[in-house]
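A further point concerns the way the authors explain their paired sequence and structure data. Nothing conveys this as quickly as seeing an actual entry. An entry of this sort, consisting of the sequence and the corresponding backbone structure tokens, reads as follows:
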Amino acid sequence: MKSDLKNYLSITKKEWNGVIVLVVLIVLVVSAPYVYKAFRKDKTINFAQIDSLVKLMPKVKTTDSTKLNLPSKLTFFNPNQLSDSGWMKLGLNAHQAKMIKHYEEKGGTFKTKQDVKKIYAISAEDYKRLEPYINLPGGETVPAIIDINHADSATVTTLKGVGPAFAMRIIRYRDKLGGFHAKTQLKEVFGIDEEHYLLIKDAVKINANAIKKTNINKATFEDLRRYPYLSYKQINAIIQYRSEHGDYDNFDDLKDVAILDEATLKKIKPYLVFK
């Protein structure tokens, strides 16, 4: 048994040489960092020398315009005649200039200084800085306020960003409703998004007395179908409830029609009468 164990533990000369080489490599790897440090010393930083050099450098006065990359001197400008680079020369960034040009492409123009302030890309600080230099030839004009419930399509086209196609859509939607009771209803017209609405909202007014109302107790299916707020099922439910329970006395009676939700009732309320 001892002989077997001895044979198991014995190694050849070739294997022994391999072990020696492996041990030597391990020693070299472990000791390498220490040998490197022994022969190479890091240079120490002389902070006193750096401080003396800094004192010799000329002092640069930093102003707000250099911090914000603003022009040192502004000149008078017409906002309707500026290119992207022109706006950037006034201290605006490329994104702001792009938003302004997008506004103009939509049909927007600057008729008053306040119109520049309405561009959401221009901050209050930007406007305060630029306002004294805005120059609109011929002086500022006050845009006419249009009664959107009486205006014809030609008059509607005078609104910012509204061409003949948009004007016809506004007129058709107004006639379908029987008139607008709130400015925000303009956003219900196909193609008029929030951006278009902001362009025109201050140039229109609403005459609620011009609204054509419907007597809910005499209305037929066709009378109610013109309202975009009501579905066919809701119209049928209104008429069916009236047939079963008699005329509606007031608006609260409509709340008993289960299929009419609060949001729909709020939209149709301005267009209904009960006597």
